[in-house]
Amino acid sequence: MSSFSTKEAAAISRVSRLWEQRLCRVFPILNLTDSTVMKTLTHHHHLLHNETSKFVARVNKVVQLHNGPHLHDFILTFELDNTSRSDITKWLLFALQKGVRRLELDFSRATPLFVGDADDNRYTLSLDSNCMPPNLVHTITFLRLCRINIGSQDVECLMRSCMLLEALSIDDSKVLTTIKLVGFPLSLKQLEISNCWKLKEIDISAPKLLSFIYRGDHIRLRVGNAFALAHVSVSVVGNEDETLRGWFRLIEASPVLQILTLNVYPLFYCSCYEPIEEIIVERVKQPFTCLKTLKIVGFEGNYVDTVLAKYVIVNAMALDEVIVYVGTCVKTEKKGNLYARVKELVKFSPSLAKFTFEEPMKTSMF
């Protein structure tokens, strides 16, 4: 508004506020995010209490003013915790009562977590009459939860109650131990589970699943009826003794899989390479006839990532390309050895896939 006079700027500002108030009353998409404040809190964490109070007051005002009959998207992004529990619960009920379809709650930390901090005062999401009544969640088609504690029973109840749920993303829940729903076919098309370090098992049936992304520790895995699965991305903390058989079974159970991204984080760095020709991998009865692209992120040439890569390459009949991103721990003078090792791997490709050797990809488990 720098090109207007003070009087003109004031008039425009009043009109703008009127439009904002009227729009927020009926607009079906509410994206309540304050990225500027979040960036400020990164360096000025002492302001958190004051800024949280301001943010909560603004959201309460929007919720109070909104009188539209329906709500399509409700997106909430701010560093919140159990201190704001009553307000968060009120906002959730507001969104659910208006038939929200896309629900995103991202309470990621903006302020640093110092050594010794437990980060235990997280908001806990539960499916009950006070927080998320199961009879009101049936309209949700997209659900994303970040730095929110949600337990195994609540996740399973949620998936049973949300018959229209097509996309589910859970990041950084400290209490999630299993996701198990056997004999109940889901409508899920996208599933993403990240940084849930107490998770031990995923056992579901998902005939419509198109994309599955997992980042975390080694788990027991079974995704039944994955007939439509076209994209799998796996980031796993492993060690030299794990062959990650669960991921092999998922790949084998995905007949139309087209893109596979593998990212294994060893618990310790290993510079001893077993000759590739001596690494024996199983040839499956039903080869991967649709897999076109294999991406290996953080390749260091150790036993785990070599077994995974060779297993996929040997069994992919139509593989077009192998893209290898070298591990960040690999020293420059060792990259030549890795390049040669990848070339040896690709020789086992039935389709003579071409390969590309790239610099480390900027990715992290944390």
Task: Spell out the blueprint of helices and strands.
Layout: H1 6-26, E1 29-33, H2 35-43, H3 48-65, E2 73-77, H4 85-97, E3 102-106, E4 142-146, H5 152-161, E5 167-171, E6 178-181, E7 190-194, E8 201-205, E9 211-217, E10 220-224, E11 231-238, H6 245-252, E12 259-266, E13 293-299, H7 303-315, E14 321-326, H8 335-346, E15 354-358
Parallel strand pairs: 1-2, 2-3, 3-4, 4-5, 5-7, 6-8, 7-9, 8-10, 9-11, 11-12, 12-13, 13-14, 14-15
Would you kindly provide a brief summary of this structure?
This protein is 28% helix and 23% strand. It is α/β, with parallel strands linked by helices and 366 residues long.
Describe this structure in words.
The protein is α/β, with parallel strands linked by helices and 366 residues long. The chain contains eight helices and 15 strands. It has a twelve-stranded parallel beta sheet with strand order 1-2-3-4-5-7-9-11-12-13-14-15, covered by helices on one side. Strands 6-8-10 form a three-stranded parallel beta sheet.
Keywords, please?
12-stranded parallel beta sheet, alpha/beta, 3-stranded parallel beta sheet, 366 residues, globular, disordered N terminus
Question: Helix and strand succession?
Answer: HEHHEHEEHEEEEEEEHEEHEHE
Major beta sheet, strand line-up = 1-2-3-4-5-7-9-11-12-13-14-15
Spatial extent as radius of gyration: 24 Å
Number of H/I helices: 8
